Amino acid sequence: MRSIKRVFVVVLAICMIFSLAGCEYIMESESQASINDNLEVHFIDVGQADSILIKKGNESMLIDAGNNADGDLVVNYLQNQNINKLKYVIGTHPHEDHIGGLDDVIDNFEIEKVIMPNAIATTKTFEDVLDSISKKNLSITKPKVGNSYDLNGAEFIILAPNGENYSSLNDYSVVVKLINGNNSFLFTGDAEELSEKEILTNNKRLLKSDVLKVGHHGSVTSTSQDFLDAVNPSAAVISSETGNSYGHPHKEILERLTKKGVDIYRTDSQGTIIMKSDGKTINFNDKELFTYDTSPKPQVIISELDKVGEIVTIKNDSSIDINLEGWRLLSVTGNQEYIFPDYVLKGNATVTITSGERQGDLIWGSENIWNNSKSDPAVLYDKKGNEVFRFDD
Q: Is the peptide bond before 161 cis (omega within 30 degrees of 0)?
């Protein structure tokens, strides 16, 4: 009976708290942009757990707070950073290794806004967080995809969860993209492949980020190839513990990141990781990690797809010459692929790839490729496997 009562209390409490939140989904613009302040992202070493502090000037936010046993560690870390107020606290999802220390954080700091998904866990850890929220007379803001919030001139956008009926609590994870000038970070909680697919469907154009917080501590359940290709990060951070029983990070994920040339940072081997952004350059331990390139970029598009004539026209929509060697053109329905030879596409020029009886600049083959009876999109990939352009007929 006591367990049934506890479940009832938890459900009642969360319903009351969410009802207090009401329609609080508004664009945050309370603070003035502070362009002279560097943004700092601290991936706090909390073992097999997550906790991320983000600071810009006099405003700060926290994403997760580690396990129950990490509460004091996180509180002390924030205090050592001279923080007494958090503008935002995000509990990505109600697993103990993400919200375990949140009650301690809420008890010890002034909190402006708490963001948590509409997911319930019948655990004492979850109850403790709700109790702390209630004692501070705070409300819970549900994450709404597309909402953006200001952090002293930086901005973060909610990308997930995209639903409210998942079998895994991990897929309720609040996923946010943080933008500071031309620099960007993607924080994924424990979002698994299902959530990643939903983000790809709904907000793929927003995924490109300089730094990726790898999902689910580097588990094979997350960081699918399609998702990684869309994010296309320069660096990735994995939060895990040496010798953990899950084997995180998994070998497959490390190989996937390495194959794409992504720099990997790990709390299990490097401890707390601090990155700083001035809006153009991201530094790690005062070493330049990434600099935003302001030089013009080549823009290659599929300008025309003539399925009847078996002609694909590709245009270099920039003034920069680009060698297409190793690029790939895919017929999606037929799952047929053309790999470009050593071919330099001049700036503002076009090239035709033909098949069947047609003769163009480049010849795919003597057989017809394109399916004329139903949809057959054409997709262009660069030599790193990144999707460059998609032509939906």
A: yes
Q: Which of 100-114, 167-181, 274-288 has the lowest mean pLDDT?
A: 274-288
Q: Which pair of tokens denotes residue 93?
A: 């999802």
CA gap 259, 239 in Å, rounded:
20
40-97 pLDDT, tens digit per residue, is 999 999 999 999 999 999 999 999 999 999 999 999 999 999 999 999 999 999 999 9
In the chain, how many H helices and how many E strands?
A: 9, 26
H or E element that contains 96: helix 96-99
SS3 track for 187-252: ECCCCCHHHHHHHHHHHHHHCCCCEEECHHHHCCCCCCHHHHHHHCCCEEEECCCCCCCCCCCCHH
Half-sphere exposure of 388 (CA within 13 A, CB side): 22
pLDDT at 264 over 70: yes
Nearby residues of 270 by Cβ (< 8 Å), 6 or more positions away: none
E strand spans, 47-126: 52-56, 59-63, 85-90, 110-115
The CA R_g of the chain, rounded to the nearest whole Å, is 24
DSSP structural state of residue 11: H
Of the pLDDT bands very low, low, confident and very high (cuts 50, 70, 90), residue 9 is: very low
163-205 pLDDT tens trace: 989 999 999 999 999 999 999 999 999 999 999 999 999 999 9
CA angle 122, 127, 133 (to 5 degrees): 140
Reported pTM: 0.70
Contact 378, 337 (CB under 8 A): no
| CA–CA gap between residue 42 and residue 51 (Å, rounded) | 8
Burial degree of 4 (CB within 10 A; 0-12, 13-18, 19+): exposed
Question: CA-to-CA distance for 275 and 385, rounded, in angstroms?
Answer: 27
Check: CB of residue 223 under 8 Å from CB of residue 200.
Answer: no
What six digits make up the tokens of 122? Answer: 């019948």
